[in-house]
Amino acid sequence: MKILVTGSKGVVGKLLVEKLKQNNHSVLGCDLLHHPGQTGFSQVMSNEPLEYTRCDISIYRQIERIIMNNGPFDIIYNCAAEFGRWNGEDFFEQLWSSNVVGLKNLLLLQTLSPFKLVHFSSSEVYGDFNELMKESVMDEFEIKQMNDYAISKWTNEMQIKNHEIMYNSDNVVVRLFNTYGPGEAYHPYRSVNAKFCYHAINNLPINLYKGHYRSSTYIDDCVDALINISKNFIPGRTYNIASTNYHDIETIADIIWSYTGASRDLINLKDPEVLTTINKKADNTLSVEELNFKDSLSLEEGIKKTIDWMKQ
């Protein structure tokens, strides 16, 4: 298959490109950064095979020339997005531009050069729902989205549903749950797992908000399930890509601090974080049955691999 991965330099996108190639697909990646080996448009920038180019999907011209000049693509995995609850507060301009305008551009281009779309949503769309999170929850309950990031991702899902009705397009939505693991280079807006690992290694203080529960998904397990969508593409499906490793945030900190030997004086306990989902317990039955999702590692094993990678 010929596949485009947007956001190909991100944590999930990078590993997805690597594993798709291992599965003998022809893969082109695009992201915001210049990178060695990228192709050009006005002039050829590299004599290497066409594998990467710079593109901001919120700018129609840039994503249009990739799809119209280098397609047709069988599948586009849309990983490109501004990620994270607090990143969405601090950089809301980029959030709404990349997440919402960017997806709209892809949907418009899907009508000109048809492709199957796998769009990355988020567990954040479940908002204030406090029970087992099945994919059908969003159709059965009125959910209150709790921050701009969540709102943008739910907006995406509505954009896709409306587009399917209008154009009978082929789309799959994936909701990722706390994906973590080697390859997640640190910055302050990363997942709680990566942030805690980095702080413990470097003896930096962290705020631990008590009472939050998460389903942490090891990155290789997440990507393996994503690749299986290309093998079993069912239009209209929504999947929770989520582990059964359900735990409180205190457990993550305990594993990390025990493994690194960092001082527990670095941990500042706080009350639950405002406008952030308390419990994220996912029902992953559909992804297990149709995408062969499997937990390959325990939470302890996954965190230790993450720490070892960070130390390197």
Main attributes?
312 residues, alpha/beta, Rossmann fold, 7-stranded parallel beta sheet
Chain-averaged pLDDT: 94
Reported CATH architecture: 3-Layer(aba) Sandwich
CATH class: Alpha Beta
* Class of secondary structure makeup: alpha/beta
State the separation between the terminal residues, measured CA to CA: 35 Å
The low-confidence runs, each spanning 5 or more residues with pLDDT under 50, are: none
The biggest sheet amounts to: 7 strands, parallel
Cα gyration radius (Å): 19 Å
Strand order of the largest sheet: 3-2-1-4-5-6-11
Portion in beta strands: 15-25%
How many domain regions?
1
CATH topology: Rossmann fold
Question: What is the H level of CATH, i.e. the homologous superfamily?
Answer: NAD(P)-binding Rossmann-like Domain
Number of helices: 11
**Silhouette:** globular
Number of DSSP strands? 13
Order of helices and strands: EHEEHEHHEHHEEHEEEHEEHEHH
* Fraction of residues in helix: 40-55%
Structure notes:
This protein is of the alpha/beta class and 312 residues long. It has one domain (2-179, 217-242, 277-295): 3-Layer(aba) Sandwich (Rossmann fold). The chain contains eleven helices and 13 strands. A seven-stranded parallel β-sheet has the order 3-2-1-4-5-6-11, sandwiched between helices. The longest helix is centred in the N-terminal third of the chain and has 21 residues, at 92-112.
